[in-house]
Specification:
By secondary structure, the chain is an all-beta fold. Helices cover 0% and strands 46% of the residues. 9% of the residues are buried.
Length: 79
């Protein structure tokens, strides 16, 4: 998984914190390697805004690809 955030962000995978960039100012890309095969996974992304515009972008590298892409909406669902 790869994500960009402005300002701070944290990413959990199945209840485990995998990336912690809870600092301001932070405008950058974070990444972590996780296995997304086998079953559905619970992903939680937290972020905060410290002024100006807010934003985040979550991407993955699908099987057979080498570059990160946005996760298709049909692969995500709210819990």
């Amino acid at each position: 998984l790869q994500f960009f955030c402005d300002d701070g962000c944290r990413l959990w995978m199945d209840g485990r914190l995998v990336t912690d960039a809870w600092v301001a100012p932070h405008t950058g890309t974070e990444s972590c390697e996780v296995d997304l095969s086998d079953r559905p996974h619970r992903i939680r992304l937290e972020y905060f805004e410290n002024g100006g515009g807010a934003g985040y972008e979550l991407k993955w590298v699908p099987p057979g690809r080498s570059a990160p892409e946005p996760i298709p909406p049909e692969c995500l669902r709210p819990s």
